[in-house]
Amino acid sequence: MVTLKGDAVYLRALEPDDLEFVYRVENDETIWEVSNTQTPYSRFLIRQYLENAHQDIYEAKQLRLAICRNGSFDAIGLIDLFDFDPVNQRAGVGIIISEKSNRNSGLGKESLGLLIEYAFQKLQLHQLYANIDIANVASISLFTNFGFQLAGVKKDWIRKNNSYTDEALYQLIR
Asked: Which residues does the UniProt record annotate as the domain N-acetyltransferase (predicted)?
């Protein structure tokens, strides 16, 4: 049976009450590089997004869940399935733990494990993939810990400070 609750965290659907949290995360320029964001988001746009968050993954082609500590409703991060492709049974995965103090504590690891189980057991996906900046050692470690394997490197893929860096494609095939 698939559960979205672990020992320390659980994953839940986004709610209207998450507006300020999502607004802070989406507008945190320090994580724009890992989230492929280039411009700020308004509260209006995020409110519209949350109003449409009721769409299921088959309709929206994505699923964004809040990461919460057990016993608390407050989100500490976000985890996504994106580019959901039910025909080819695959989806991309993204994760962010917003506060640095909550990183490297096992919360992201447990969250990713719950999402992988959900993707393979409930959605019956064949594969998951992650696009990771080659300099993001923490993310590479997190994903390879679950068996994601390097499938290739996209050269000069990410523009940072008027120069380019490579992005790696990692895959987990069931």
From this structure: 9-171
First to last CA, the chain: 17
Residue from 136, 135, 36 nearest 80 by CA: 36
pLDDT tens-digit map of 49-80: 777 776 788 888 899 999 999 999 999 999 99
How many CB atoms within 10 Å of residue 170? 21
Query: What is the CATH code of the structural domain delimited by 9-125?
Result: 3.40.630.30
Q: What is the pTM of this model?
A: 0.88
Residue with tokens 């949350």, as numbered in its chain: 50
Domain ranges in the chain are 9-125
* Calpha distance 40→27 (Å, rounded): 5
Tell me the CB-side half-sphere exposure of residue 26, using CA atoms within 13 A.
17
Place of tokens 């490197």: 153
